[in-house]
Design a protein that fits this description.
Pfam families: DUF6913. The protein is of the alpha/beta class and about 160 residues long. It has a single domain, classed as 3-Layer(aba) Sandwich (Rossmann fold), CATH 3.40.50.2300. Helix content is about 35%, strand content about 15%. A six-stranded parallel beta sheet has the order 3-2-1-4-5-6, sandwiched between helices. Helix 1 crosses helix 4 and helix 2 packs parallel to helix 5. The model has no long low-confidence stretch (mean pLDDT about 90).
């Protein structure tokens, strides 16, 4: 059944968004209250959260998620969390109901489900590492020059602060 869900999600990604969201080019750091992280795994999310709290403040709420078809972790999601017609299920609707101020996207496991989740959060400011496939989804992208995720995330935050 994965292929059916993937088919509908892929079609949703190919359709232009009906409502182009108006985003401010500048995201004011002091206004950030909630950050969503879409990463590769739980360990990476924890590392990114530590950098965010160090560089932006301890009061920021972090929501972390990653794509994993075999994990039963509450932060993991998979194609099973979408309906047969590619709509987000109950677990993902709860996630989507929280509108983060900033999305940090570091997932290297690009798939239609992760991209669709990113597209559904289009009103939030998003940043991550450069990839041709991510151009329509991210507002700020950097080349991944750093070897570890903590240094790369620190650079993303540094440049976000500079454009403010």
């Amino acid at each position: 059944m994965k292929w059916i869900r993937e088919y509908f999600v892929k079609n949703a990604l190919e359709k232009p968004r009906k409502l182009k969201t108006q985003k401010s080019i500048l995201l004011h750091i002091e206004n950030i209250k909630t950050i969503a992280i879409l990463g590769n795994d739980k360990e990476e999310i924890d590392q990114i959260a530590a950098v965010v709290h160090r560089d932006l403040g301890e009061k920021i709420e972090i929501l972390g998620n990653y794509y994993d078809e075999k994990s039963v972790d509450e932060q993991a999601f998979s194609y099973k969390d979408f309906t047969l017609f590619g709509k987000p299920g109950e677990k993902l609707n709860q996630l989507l109901s929280v509108r983060p101020d900033l999305i940090i996207f570091t997932s290297e496991k690009l798939n239609y489900f992760t991209l669709y989740l990113l597209q559904l959060q289009a009103s939030s400011y998003s940043m991550g590492f450069f990839s041709e496939e991510l151009k329509p989804y991210l507002d700020l992208m950097l080349n991944k020059e750093e070897k570890d995720i903590q240094s790369g995330t620190a650079l993303l935050i540094k440049y976000l602060k500079q454009i403010n």
